[in-house]
Each structure stands twice: as C-alpha cells, then as structure tokens.
Design a protein that fits this description.
four-stranded antiparallel sheet; six-stranded mixed sheet; disordered C terminus; globular
Length: 251
C-alpha cells in the first residue's frame, strides 16, 4: 500500500554494554527496515561485534533493548531466533563433519521437519554452491568453502534477517567477489546487517551505513551521504581520528 511504513526488522534501542569500568558500547540506537543491506562500519575494537552479539542474543545488554522482526531478544528469544540467521566471524564449524552432515545436524537441532529440511538443504547447497564438497570433511575445505558452509547454515531455516560479522575476513580477492555476489542475490528476500572495517565492502554491497567508533554511533545514513569527493576514506579517517584504517582483528 502506498504510504505504508516499512517493517523494522532490526531494532537497537539505547544499547550499552559495560565490563566493570570498561565501556564496550554506549547508548547505541538504530533501526533497519525490511529488505535493506546495511553495513556496520567501524575500526577494529569499535564495538561492532559486541553490538551484533547483543542483537543475536549471545550477550545481554547492560542497558537498552534489541528486537528482531518485532520480537524483543530478551523476552521473546525463540521467536526472534526463528527469524534470524547469524554468521559470526570464524563461526563454529565441526571440522570432522561434512557440510551435508552439518546441515542435517543444525536442521534437526532447529526442529525442521525431515521433508522440509531436505528441501532447505537442497536450496542452500544450490545457493552457496556447495555441490562439489558436500561429502568432504569441513576441516579439509578451503577458507572460502568453509565460509560458504557457514552461510548455508545461517540460511538453512530461511530466516527473514541475516546478521554477519566480518564475513569476508581471511578470504582472497576471488572468494570475496563470490561472497559479495552471493549476498546481493540473497538480499532480494532478506534484511542483512554485516559488520566490516573494509571500506570497499561498504561500496560494493551496502545501501545503508551505520558507523560506530569507540562504542558510540557516529553516522547513520546512506553511503552517498558519508562520501566526500566520491570516497569513503576521508570520512573514515575524520570520524575515527586515525591515520589509516586497521586491516585485521576483531570489532
């Protein structure tokens, strides 16, 4: 319907996380509407991973609240989890399992009916191009294929929301290009939040940017609004007060 407001699929309201005197994030608030690819940008140690762990229910906030598809993570954890796929940085994959065994394991753990589970495995194997490695132990796969397996696991239950923490870390340029292509295909039916400290990632896939630094939100808008002279580099340096972006490590 014309004029109808888009559904907010990811909501952060006044999120703060304290570890004793250390402030990981402070008063972080944003919303991401249905069907949007949002890049969560910031230097390493800015608070990206902490925020994502709160959004996915792996951490409890010291203050504030988070919701997925309208379901509060604290009070309606299972309902939110049904609508959420999560790909953490260096996500846990059972190295001795094959991708097929892993997908069956996670599908059964999620309570998917056998017939539906088979349909979903077929779908994510096609989506993530895993046909050639389905029966190989995950421990013997390349970093790129392991990332595809992780993505397939996150997509298995066909979630409405996909959250990914540094999804291209450690991939070579060809693997990064393949992963970005996959994300753009997936985005037609999902709301996606992906954290990164790589500026090219933002330009390649995002239609919205949330920028965090020292645990505080410093920008929330379209990539074009952040650019200066067609580049994201100068705003990055200015907002972080750094001489150059850091290239490795955790957010």
């Amino acid at each position: 319907m014309a004029g109808e407001k888009p559904k907010m699929m990811i909501e952060a309201k006044g999120l703060s996380k304290y570890y004793g005197p250390f402030v990981a994030i402070q008063n972080v608030s944003f919303t991401i509407p249905e069907g949007q690819i949002c890049a969560f940008l910031g230097p390493n140690g800015a608070g990206k991973s902490t925020t994502m762990k709160i959004l996915t229910g792996f951490l409890s906030p010291s203050e504030g609240s988070a919701a997925i598809a309208g379901y509060d993570i604290s009070t309606h954890r299972l309902e939110a989890a049904r609508r959420l796929g999560y790909l953490p940085e260096n996500g846990p994959l059972y190295q001795e399992m094959t991708p097929l065994e892993l997908l069956n394991f996670f599908g059964e753990a999620r309570g998917l009916e056998p017939g539906y589970l088979k349909q979903r495995i077929d779908a994510v194997v096609e989506q993530c191009a895993l046909q050639l490695v389905l029966e190989k132990p995950i421990g013997k796969l390349s970093r790129g294929y392991k990332q595809r397996v992780g993505l397939a696991q996150a997509l298995l239950h066909d979630p409405e929301v996909l959250i990914m923490d540094e999804p291209t870390a450690g991939l070579d340029p060809n693997q990064i290009r393949e992963f970005r292509t996959n994300i753009r295909k997936i985005a037609h039916k999902k709301t996606i939040l992906l954290s990164t400290h790589i500026l090219q990632e933002v330009e390649a896939v995002a239609d919205h940017v949330i920028f965090i630094h020292n645990g505080k939100l410093v920008f929330n808008g379209a990539p074009g609004e952040l650019k200066e002279n067609g580049s994201l580099e100068k705003p990055f340096y200015r907002l972080t007060g750094e001489g150059h972006p850091v290239e490795a490590g955790n957010g």
